[in-house]
UniProtKB/TrEMBL annotation:
It holds the Pfam family Peripla_BP_6. It comes from Deinococcus metallilatus. It comes from the Bacteria. Transmembrane segments: none annotated. Belongs to the leucine-binding protein family. Residues 16-368 form the Leucine-binding protein domain. Keywords: Signal. This is Branched-chain amino acid transport system substrate-binding protein. InterPro entries: Leu-bd, Peripla_BP_I.
Length: 387
């Protein structure tokens, strides 16, 4: 009885640290949102033992935002109310990240997004918001250069899906197309079936030899299918919202030839991702996309910060302490030849004073005729160059 009482006391004294994920776990963006949760989940599972040794129970708390900025305030309220949540991995969508980041600011609850690329997110003087992906400005630079120098487009019809992400991506592209003196046929927003039907007519009438789409894969797949069904053969290019297995599942053969810039890229593009890929497939019976890799790295960066801020002795560090520690994280690049398991898959992780990753990369990808993604170009972007 005495031994049982001691064991129970030990369990009771263990403090719980929660890592929250905020991403769509229902709705049309579930495939990508689930990648965020799963990537974070693997990192939490791997580090649970180390935290246990420090006197903490490490727990993942997933929140479903349904990719809705309207639902984001309630999500943020729920996360803030749970005092054991010391950090957030997410959100997926820039519009959601904007809302929850504003809500988290007074409490300095840190968040590291594995996917939100809207430029404004790191221009608000927030000390608690960070991301491990390159912003829209970096994609705009890379995409415009490729359109001008490699595709040599005569005219580009630019379309946004009317989200914060899509608007930010297309604005960045427009600015850079202007620098390259590439003519823009028109700019339009399209997210509903009726709007897509209307914009397809406008694209066809414009004669543009290039269509650029800023938005997510659910709308992008509908748009490219509608364009091809209408006989429009213009090259179709998008941003990292198209970098998802669900894009091809939805677009089918219409995805052949589609070009996209991405801050993610295929798992095969990372030389040290083989072990992660095997663990992911063993756990979830499916292959990961780049989103899962970035979520994994974001979570490991957050956990490193919590360890640095923790005193042990089962006392929880404050949210402000964790937030400050995130900006001091410096995880080195790791390779499979290393004896220990890699804490990073996408390269070294460290953050600027605005929350941008110090060095990130943008890939230009193209789906070939059998719908296999091929790397066309790789570009490294520093946070300093984006100022």
């Amino acid at each position: 009885m005495a031994l049982s009482a001691l064991l129970l006391a030990g369990v009771a004294n263990a403090a719980t640290i929660k890592i929250a994920t905020v991403s769509p776990l229902s709705g049309s963006l579930t495939p990508m949102g689930s990648e965020v949760k799963r990537g974070a989940e693997l990192a939490v599972q791997e580090q649970a033992g180390a935290f246990k040794a420090l006197g903490y129970d490490l727990v993942l708390a997933p929140y479903d935002d349904q990719a809705s900025a309207t639902l984001a305030p309630q999500i943020a309220k729920s996360v803030l109310a749970d005092k054991s949540v010391l950090g957030v991995v997410g959100a997926l969508n820039s519009s959601v990240s904007n809302v929850v980041a504003q809500a988290f600011a007074p409490a300095r609850l840190t968040m590291i997004s594995p996917a939100s690329t809207n430029d404004q997110l790191t221009q608000n003087a927030w000390t608690h918001f960070n991301r491990v992906v390159a912003p829209d400005a970096a994609q705009g630079v890379a995409a415009a250069g490729y359109i001008a120098d490699e595709l040599k487009a005569a005219s580009v019809f630019v379309i946004s899906d009317n989200t914060a992400y899509g608007n930010g991506l297309t604005r960045a592209l427009l600015d850079n197309l202007k620098k390259h003196k590439v003519p823009v046929a028109a700019y339009a927003g399209a997210s509903t079936a009726a709007q897509i039907a209307e914009v397809v007519k406008r694209v066809k009438a414009s004669g543009a030899d290039m269509v650029y789409f800023g938005g997510t894969d659910d709308t992008g797949s509908q748009l490219v299918k509608a364009l091809r069904a209408a006989g429009v053969t213009a090259t179709f290019m998008g941003g990292d919202g198209l970098d998802s297995p669900s894009f091809l599942q939805r677009a089918g053969i219409a995805g052949a030839g589609v070009v996209y810039s991405t801050v993610f890229g295929p798992v095969s593009a990372f030389s040290n991702a083989l072990d992660f890929n095997d663990r992911y497939q063993a756990a979830y019976k499916t292959k990961p996309s780049g989103v899962a890799l970035y979520a994994y790295d974001a979570t490991n960066a957050l956990l490193a910060a919590i360890k640095a801020a923790a005193t042990g002795n089962r006392a929880l560090p404050t949210r402000a302490q964790v937030s400050a520690a995130v900006r001091k994280v410096n995880l080195p690049a790791c390779f499979t030849a290393d004896k220990s398991r890699c804490a990073t898959i996408t390269g070294a992780v460290a953050f600027s004073d605005t929350g941008e990753r110090l060095n990130s990369r943008v890939l230009i990808m193209r789906f070939d005729d059998v719908l296999q993604p091929q790397v066309a170009k790789v570009q490294t972007v520093s946070a300093e160059s984006l100022k």
